[in-house]
Amino acid sequence: MNGFMKTMAICFLLMFWSIQSFSQGPNSQLSATLNTYIVDEMVENNIPGLAACIIKEGKVVWKTALGKSNLELNKDVNFETSFTLASISKLFTATAAALLADQGLLDLDDNINSYLPIQIKNPNHPTAIITTRHLLTHTSSLNDFESDLQLWDAPGDPIYTLSEFCASYFLEGGSFYKSSNFGDQLPGQSSYWYSNAGYTLLGYVIESAAGMPFNEYIKTSLFDPLKMNSAGWFYSEVDSNTMAMPYDKEFTPYGYFSLPEYPAAMMKSNIHELANFLMMYTQKGIFESTGILPLDVFDMIVPANMQSGFAWWGTDTWWGDPQGHYWSHGGFMNGVRTQLNYYPSDSTGLIILTNGEGNYADIQQEIEKYIPQFDATNTSSIGAVENENVQFFPNPISNKDQLNLRFEIQKQRKVKIVDLKGKVMLETMTNLDHVKLNTYLLKQGTYFIHIQEEDNNLFIKKVVIQ
Q1: Burial code of 186-207, b = ≥16 C-beta within 10 A, e = fewer?
Q2: What percent of the chain has pLDDT over 90?
Q3: CATH numbers and ranges of domains, the chain
């Protein structure tokens, strides 16, 4: 994308932002105010697209989709947009390993070489065994660095199988082999070292123990029971029309790329289905009245002491909450920033998915503030809804003109103009397929049009008054 196109993309985001949001009953105004804050942060931090949700009492009480999934094609983010999850992928890999252990197919404390066709050892401790539990808790003494992920970016699906990558990385003479791949401390006694290569090796162990390809075991053990029908590890497994394009901070697209370390970073899902996975954890292994994780397996993955979690970040990890208030995992790679949090004290959670490199820390903190405020009473689990087909013009608009709204379907609607602080500046009810709003009393600046339908679907459009 050249300089002119980048400038146009930023202007497009500022003036024609698309928001798809869904909440019910008393949550609607909370949702509108929260969306207003998030959009402002996205513009400030150059985040092209975002999807997020809040889980409470086993339900999705708030869900939103904002911005663009593809700037070049002018495609909006919606609830069906698939994002690359980056390191949130590890939560699925770890959960699958725990399920294999529960099925008696994998001993977490046995030597991983009992399951692999290759023999892996730390050359600094050649007689010490490495176990699956060591891999799960990042204490295997197998080291790598976050920057290593960028060394193997390649268009399309991975060009290495798990067996090829692990042999090249961990076996002497391999093209990726180097002494820094191994730490000085004993496996199991080494300090925490976050390892993407270690989780790729874990995927290989899962594949070998399950007797089927890694991606197929995840599908049968997790995707299918959690109704994650659109999720996948490879582009060939997902609908290419739904994939969000990853962008840098200048809105330059990276293209659809992959890494050979796909069990650690390359899972793809939309917010609608990923919420099912988090709901299962907030309900201690249960999803829609079906036990997915036995309670002892759940307790093993996320222990009550908030330490030694399987993939989940706790108090003893680099990026976990030091206060021990929540389990989490973030995702960080080219054109991707993601976050998934589980709060055990009140069984709530949040998810943030983006296709950019902007900082979302303030967005996360703001969503956390809203979790106690959202009402889960008489709220069914929220499903995806389609974008409102509405035309509004002119935009930008002079405060001396009238703002025209035209709807494809005639129904009862409440239409409001709201400022950046969430204050309602104008409000009207209509059951027509068109409405005109007088803006002559409004000052110059940025506002949001809230369209609340009779079935409580909420849609928001951004407008600039000059």
Answers
A1: bbbebeebbbbbbbbbbbbbbb
A2: 68
A3: 1-11+77-356 (3.40.710.10)
